[in-house]
Amino acid sequence: MVSIVVADDHKIVRQGLIRLLEAREDFTVVGEASDGEEAVTLVLQKRPDVVLMDINMPKLSGIDATRRLGEAGCPSKILVLSMHESPAYIEEVLRAGASGYVVKASASKDVYRAIDAIQSGTSFLSAAISRKAVES
User: Fold this and answer.
1) Is the distance from CB of 6 to CB of 33 less than 8 angstroms?
2) Cα-only R_g, the chain
3) What gap in Å lies between CA 80 and CA 100, rounded to an integer?
4) Where are the domains positioned within the chain?
5) Of 64, 63, 54, which Cα lies nearest the Cα of 34?
6) Alpha carbons 55 and 60: distance in angstroms, whole number
7) 96 with 55: CB under 8 angstroms?
C-alpha cells in the first residue's frame, strides 16, 4: 500500500483527489491538510510514502513546506499538483526537493503515473510541463 497525504487549500479539490486516489486499491490516504503549516505537521507525524502538495496555500506555500520537509529529513516523496505551468515555478519546486510536478489540468491517469514513478525512485513531470521545460 502506498500511503498518501493530500495538501490543498480547496476542500473540494482535496475531496476529489482523495476519491480519485482511493479508487486504486494500492493507495490509501492517511491525512489531508488545508495549509502549508498543517501539511508539514501532518507529514512529519504520519510519514506517508507520498505527499500531493499544492503550491498556493495559506500560512506556508507548498514550495516552502516541501523545503521544510526536506530540511527535517522527511523521507516522503513530494508530488506537486498545481495549476501553474511556469518554468520558474517548476524549477523552484524541484530545487525545494519535490520529486514530481503535475498540472491540475492533467488527466487522472497522470496522477497515478506520477505516484508510481516517484515511488519507484524516478522523477515525473506531466507532458505539458515536460514540453515547457524542453522549450526553455
Assistant:
1) yes
2) 13
3) 6
4) 2-135
5) 54
6) 9
7) no
